[in-house]
## 1
Amino acid sequence: MTLLSLQGIEARHGLLPAVRGISLDVAEGETIALVGANGAGKTTLLRTIAGAHKPAAGRVFFAGEDITRVRAHDRVRMGIALVPEGRRLFPALTVEENLLVGAQRTRPGRWTVEAILEAFPLLKPLRDRRAATLSGGEQQATAIGRALIANPRLLLLDEVSLGLAPIAVEGVYRSLQLLIDEGSTIVLVEQDLTRARAVAKRVVCMLEGSVALEGASGELSRERITEAYFGLRRAREAGTWAG
Amino acid sequence: MGSQDTPILAAVGIHKRFGALVVLDGVDFSIGVGDAIGIVGPNGAGKTTLLNILSGALLPSEGSVAFNGSDVTQSGVSRRCRLGIGRAHQVPRPFGDMSVFENVLVGAATGGGLRGRRAYGRCIEVLEICGLTGTANRRAESLGLLDRKRLELARALATDPLVLLLDEIGAGLTEVEAEELVATIRELHRQGVAIVWIEHIVHVLVRVVERLVCLDAGRVIADGQPDAVMRDSAVVDAYLGRVVV
């Protein structure tokens, strides 16, 4: 069943077009990865799905319902949760308090503070620590936990490995794999193609606000993705690329 | 022309630190008279910091910058601008309530040091090169994105640069618009202006530049012909992560 359907989404930042006519379906239980260079429109697309950015055109459907005009906090209640780039925790609040902030718009489900501390063992001893004193990896785990506690049907993750030490990235991805194995529906933005392909069934490569390439992770070679990522086919068509 | 002679602009052993954060870690960069070089690299590689050091907006923590053989390391933006280093920014910020012509005139007068008829003449020339003749009397704030980018280019060009530093000016344009911008930059290059261009949109960049330099984590990881650089496994790894075997 299609959980999320984007139809002809266009989004701008002032005069700057960031997303140019993207249509995309995500099935329940599917994990897809958005990859693409800086400025390709990945974060704007994710924020548009979450209701944090108003599209200039197009429609967003969630579980068959047109939610284009539904506000972000109501989308959380419907089951869409965003883990934003840079974590955006409340630095003066403890880990537990940050999680409870996420529980304000919660849907019934298995994710509680206790369940999250179980799923992210590194957070267990940090329950009463202020977010400002946590390492990057601990903050990221808290941010994912804060999204999970709303018991979302769709989890949106924006560059969860950005700025983290490799060992912290490992930890975050181990926890994500558990969520994926449980059948969560996830759309993630990830710069690291190897990681993106390891966790996502489908990869969508964006270029300048459009989809340049889309396919099953196992079927897209690194070369094809590289070509789409940099727009090299366009350069070849323009006669300025020898490759 | 170019690389064999004294470089028009050269940076040697550039380090830049912001507190404990090392943004540039020993970068050597030079461009010959009339050459066109693209700088690429993933987010946070240090591209804009390098451009800021070349333009004089930032001082390096270590290293030196020379223009036409003379040391300009301690010179600020305005002095370098008068020497012949022009810069166009990623987000154009024209004087909104002034006309397009007046905006370009500011560049000619303050950066180019031109007065009176010579300044006016330069503006007319630049507006034509940048395809802004028809919009010269419009208020800058009424312009669309492409014309704003053209105006940003025109303001830099009015200073009569020998080297033009471009920071992601292709961002947000449609393919047709990017094509028009490319045509303008190619024309400047043809006229002998050296171009240093940071751009994420590689397929646009390679329509102008004959050499690409790739930065990653503050170091140059590749330097050469565009197709060789973009197929370099270190470059692909820098953007897309390493392949885990």
## 2
Amino acid sequence: MSKETIVDPDILIAEYTLGVLNARDTARAQTLLSNDPDCVTAALQWEERFLGLVDQLEPLAPPPQLLQRVQAMLGMEITLVKRPSFWSRAPRKILGALWNGLWFWRLLAVLLLALAATYAAKPNLAVLNAPPLSQLAILQAPGQTSTPGWVLTVDEQHNVVLSPRVHIDVPFEASVELWTRSASAPQPRSLGVINANQPVTIPAERVGELSMDQLFEMTLEPKAGSPSGAPTGPILFIGRMIVLNQKLAP
Amino acid sequence: MAFSSFDHEATLLACARGDHVALQELYRHEAPRMLALCTILLGHPGEAEETVRDAFVLIWKNASNYEADAGAARAWIYSILRYRALNRLRQGAISAVGDHAPADFPSNVAQLASGPASNPLTTTLAQLSEAQRRPVLMAFYEGLNYEQIAQRLALPVSQVESEVRSALSAIAEHYQA
């Protein structure tokens, strides 16, 4: 804007809202906005008018993780995005055609007969040799009791094996840290920073002794993990271990 | 403006009361258009997503400052978004203003006047001369200021200022009529 020109304040506010002013005139408009509530109303009125140009644009679907980033920055509970199952990704038309086809059923019947004959002849050694599953925890996002986030099991060597059931997006500047605690050792103990979307095995020597009521939780922490050695960020997933085949007290 | 039954004001006031679900509803309703605007303004999907993210954080943190008497809630939301986007554009977060490919925004008269979301603003813009309309659209969709528009159009800054002010006056008259 040239120095000599005297511009209607409403037009100055319109120019400011549109974003065309140089630094000097932007400062003039901001002074007006700071001192005159009517100018604030005028600015919002212009912003509302310009929405007509926003509505000309074709909406763009944001990536599912963007809402999670907003929630993470605000320390809110993260809205989970369910991992698409194999069956939802498989070409359903082909499966449907197979399912409805006569030859599919004939072939299936032949295969089942062959399998029945095999298993009648010898015991199912694979099943007999499977290690008994004895300790298990389902980790869930706080408040989302119907959605398993991670499944935790303990293998024969007492390693803790964790497998994700949902996909989450972790902000670049953050990480997910796994913690454990129990009633007898209530101070959370870090089991390390983990990849939020990959299965992970925590070695038995790192896990240490597990109690019957062992609790596991994952928290959102700075990139290299909690700087204090204790959880600092929001809990993403939490779950208590249960011991299977445990005799109930009478 | 496109018809919408979404109650921005009630949702924003719910955000001010700390209602997390309200923020999700606002996000689901408005984020796609906010992302479209930022993508066209900043010319970079990653920058656009970060701007939308930052805007929602600011909307949540400042929701209690919103006063319905001062103006429409949706306008308040976009004032935060556009301020943030223009700052990012001008403070060097993007390599250089106007460096990205020219924005593919609706600019011709037919598009503006008869587009799927034609509204009083686009109707008025369609009635203006190309010399008046073009710099307004360059400012809004490309985030260019007077000097940058003048440079792009090879015109004196004073002429661009004059055309834009005429356009803004015509828009104001249309709404006051």
## 3
Amino acid sequence: MPIVKLLRQTKYQVIAAAIVIAVLLLLWKPEILIEGIQRSSLYAVIALPMALILGVVGIINLAHGDFMMLGAYTAYFLAVKTGIDPMLAMIPAILAFFAIGAITYLALIRPVLGSPELNQLLLTFGLGLVLEELVNLLFTSQPYKLSVSYVSSSLTLGNFTFGTFEFVYVLAAVVVFIGLHYFLKKTRLGQSATAVGQNPRGARLVGIDVNRTYLIMFSLSIAIIATIGVLFSMRYSVFPLAGAPYTMKSFCLIAMAGIGNLIGILWYSALLGVSESVITAIPGAAGWADLVFFALIVAAILIRSYRQRVK
Amino acid sequence: MKNWKWVIFAALFALMASLPLYTGSYFLHTVFIIMIYMSLALSWDMLVRTGQISFGIAGLFGVGSYASCILQAFNPGLNPLISIVFGAVVAGIVALLLGLATLKLRGMYFAIITLAMAEIFRVIIRNLPDTWAGGAMGMVLPNAIFNGDLKLTYWMVMAITLITIIVSEIFNKSRIHFAITSIRNDEVVAMSSGIDIFKYLVFIFLITSVLQGLVGGAYAQIYGSVNPEANFAATWSLLPLAMALFGGMHTTWGPIIGALILGLASEYLKLLLPYGYLIVYGVIIILVILFLPKGIMGLIKRFTEKK
């Protein structure tokens, strides 16, 4: 039996366990599974650009979630001031944040590329703080919430109900993942980005403009994350610290999947999202759901350091 | 030359110790708050000297305050000083466990773990039964330490700051210094010189966390209360970090100078920008990293060496 053989590998054991859990959940409370998948997609789509920056530029961007927060504020004010559908705010957000990403890269990231990791971490930490506090100064810490009619639409199947708008995050995750995959494998720029990520010196030797690749990839990631911020603002309220938890959750996914493993991020975001929804659904335990990512990140680090013997 | 240095130290010590005898309570309060930040900045810097960065000062500070406050609340007759030490011990245990788990994979993994720490403890405190840790409302002790006597409080904070300075100097002057510096500069060289990097990192993380827990415990006893928002506030990580960075990393004097300047500045800033004054610290962090990675101490060194 080939299936039995396959099950000897850890990878397939994990997949089999995931399928079993999914089926059990589907039988027990389907809305938890659906809610979990929607949540996971949001995590995945936020983590993907962070993984891209880390994989190609080699910088861990601690201001990642804060750029999403900025995108969300952009959408909010565009929608309120001009009356357009917030969905349409994605177009100006992409352009504006590509430029903002480029400026950030040239002014802040590029000067510290050769510095010790410590300085890079401090710099992006400081940047995140400045973004949060700038928004706090301009708009106070009061939460803003868009009210869009179709966001609260829901679907009732049999005797359970779930929101339908949240599937936009699933769609976004699929689009971003497939787009990035195609981009990195098939286009010239994407291939050179992969090469730069693997070995910047080697890439430079074969004639790739490393600096330009860094610039484009960083700006592109910021543009993606801000666009996700637009979608975020339609469903959740935005406030200065709205993005900060996503920085840590994104890093948690990257730590579990390993740097450069984009598909792994999808699997592990499903693990994180579904476990959070399950815990939220248990009466009296909802508050503990915020600890799941921390437990996962510590577990991932433990497994990594003791199994692979890194140094 | 050497004696001359000691005379200055003695004079400074005498000046600081006698401060409560002739200054007003507002000034005294400002000075001891600066000292609290100074101890945190210095303890943060001790870990940075190994090349590891912790964003978790607030987490350990908060654990120290909560542990000491809880012990005191359940044993009202206990000497608060014992509770403060208990806070330090608990922070040390937390750091030991986290360090053992995460310091094999260093750098950004450790940094993010510490970044999440304050938030994690805040979630735990909020979710614990209210009778244990006070929940979201926090807890209030019947009595502040020394019944709120400002002079004694000041001397206690000064003693803690002195302990931190002495530990920092021991780290900088003894053999450990060479181990720390070589781990920071080149781990491979450190390893081939027979340094057990993991052991050193866990040990230093433990010591610095005990100091941060000690400060946290003292803070909780001084104000006689704790709550999740105030004692795990991001400012407890942020200000010490900016101070140490501004003054100059990897030195004892850097964080002290940084804490003095930024501590005094923050009193003024709070009045100027009541909301969002933290942006100034973010800007300072960015500017220092970009243009002055060695801080004020680096500037001083550059000018004195030229002459």
## 4
Amino acid sequence: MYRIDDRLKEFCESALATVVGTTDAAGKPAIIYGSGLRIRDDRSSADVFVDSLRADQTLANLGSSGRIAVTFANPVSYRSAQLKGHFLEAAPATVEEMAWVRASRDAFLVAATLVGESPQALRSRWQDDVIRLAFVVEQAFDQTPGPGAGTPL
Amino acid sequence: MTSVQPSLDVRIEDIPTCFDGAIPSAICTVAEDGTPNVTYLSIVHRVDDTHVALSRQFFKKTDHNIEVNPRAQVSVTEPETGRIFLLDVVYVRTETEGPTFERMRTRLDAVAAHEGMANVFRLKGTDVCRVEACQLLPGFEPNSLPRRDIAIERVEAVSRRLTDVGEMEELFGAMLDACAELLGYPHAAVMLADETGEHLYTVASTGFEASGAGSEVRIGEGLIGVAAGRRQSVRVADLGREISYSHAILDVNAPDDTAVEDGPPAPSPTSEAIALPWLPRVRSLLVTPMLAYHKLVGVLYLQSEEPGAFLSNDECVVGILANQAAMALATLRQAQAAPEDAGDAAREAPEAVVVRHYPEDDSVFLDGEYLIKGVAGSILWRLLQQYQEQGRSDFTNRELRLDQSIGLPDIKDNLEARLILLRKRLEERCTYLRIERSGRGRFHLHVDRPLVLEQAP
């Protein structure tokens, strides 16, 4: 079982730009943008939040293959990492979780605006109807662009 | 959960700005054991209406996965609207040469060179992928942005104007006017290759605070120099973002001895570097080589403080414009010929100016202030000597071309451009010396103060 240490947890929860990858049973990949990646207290599972309206393929893939990859990056420094593991469950975000997701999205907006992206264009990136995807973390990799990308953490 | 709106199939040629690298993309691939891998990608290039190309730089896992399972999904974002599109792609081949590879390699190297980071981002190859589906994510406005095409009639009008020019300065004016008026880009500069083929020098610009006339770039160095050296246009949608990306790679991954090099080479002790015409908050950049008869004649470059200002269509149109101007320039150089003229009297002026010439690089200083160097410096020194010794102030292009003391056998090719440059530098740097055209192939040297000519040892 992979255990996420304090340093990686801190980075996971502050990296802001989050993307989720899944695959169907035949090996056809799918992407969905996420937000609010949060490590659970057991340090070996995590939650990531995605727009439910856009999640049909992702949910179907998670139901069939059960595999998930989540990459998160700091939009200013480009430092990034990837968690890989197995899907646990999906559920509508609670009120408390929505507050966490909104805070995370707001922080992303600030960071992305700092590097010159249009706030107006960024706002349409997410929707209000959000589901939580829970997964067991089995591997973690450095994903920062450069020759070290792909190194296990 | 809720029902899904039907996704729209989109033609990739209808969303060109998604492929300019203004906003990072993501790519998801699948390993042989069924594990997905998802990572950010700096830019997805559009090759044609059904193919995209991905750079093979650091994506070890992605590269491996694509070899065992050629399917990938790529997301691209339209910077103006934030609309996100998902592309289902299938790997076709890896290219390590050819136009697509060279275009991507030059762009990468040019941005790195801008930051003095040579050899940090070696492009190993480009993965060309067939696009099998392109869908807009549900929840976004389905209507595409109106396309900002340049009307073919306007391109034809510019082309006609370029064929009408009779003189070099008129040609530069026509090029800059075309950028500003017809294409809508008010910040543009023309640089020409010098006789040695080692440097570019700025001969005309518009829309910048300082004209930068006479500023130089070594071919092969820096963003403009790399584009010129490879004879490849470079279009950058967001220079600041690409620089941050470069620094991230360098900061995290470079060994200690791979520090960022210094910027441009230090000016020689006898001259000062003239700054390139450059917008202080430049975001978008388009550098287009001017090519004629298999030779690099110069570059035309455009800048904007807006991100994503230059579209792929613009790059094509500016390329046509630059090459036609290069051909016109080559023709004008061949046609240069001029009648002789007689001399004129000198004028009086209140206070003497010390003009100092350094033969090692032909730099000329006025009262200790750097003015110009190289061929233009040599020309000025020769003119001032003749003014001083023989009282002449009217000259012809022809006599300069024949003047061995100017020292460069190939000067005839670039004489007129050098005179334009010299005239601009004089306009900018002093009030008492100026050069004015006095007829076809003739010019008059105005001197409003006494001169003391000093040849440095």
